[in-house]
Amino acid sequence: MDFFSNNLPQSLLVIGLILLVIEVVVLGFSTFFLFFAGIGSIATGALLYTGLIPDTGLSALMSTGIFTLLAALVLWRPLQKMQKNVSKEKAQGDLVGHQFVLQERVSATEAPQYHYSGIGWRLISQDTIEAGTRVEVIEAQVGEFHIKPVE
Predict the structure, then answer these.
(1) DSSP assignment letter at 25
(2) The overall pTM is greater than 0.70
(3) Domain 99-149 of CATH type 2.40.50.140
(4) pLDDT digits 0-9 by tens, 46-102
(5) What is the largest CA-CA distance in the chain?
């Protein structure tokens, strides 16, 4: 605790950065509380470091609270708007679009394996596709390729 009070500006800067990293990396920027507290802590640390506010625990606590509140008031709506503009489309991986020739027949009841990139993928299709047909992966899930014939 003595180290923290002797190095208050640096400690607040480090705490602020840790809070920002936790919010963005661990929580995926889903809650904003740690983000606002991190901004408040960094701003207070910077002001303490420059000497604009006294180097005491009470002034640091009050300043951190005020800057956290200001950050929340200013950034709440823009961040909410940013979260609402997320694309609803599924992300397509590198496997979608992969084409190959079937070695076995595939149907709604038959789902043979296809070995690609060291993994055995179960082939899924609602239509019957005969062996020897060139197919394309239209969706890739864990251990499964959803395929359709190439026209």
Answers:
(1) I
(2) no
(3) yes
(4) 999 999 999 898 999 999 999 999 999 999 998 888 878 766 766 667 788 899 999
(5) 79
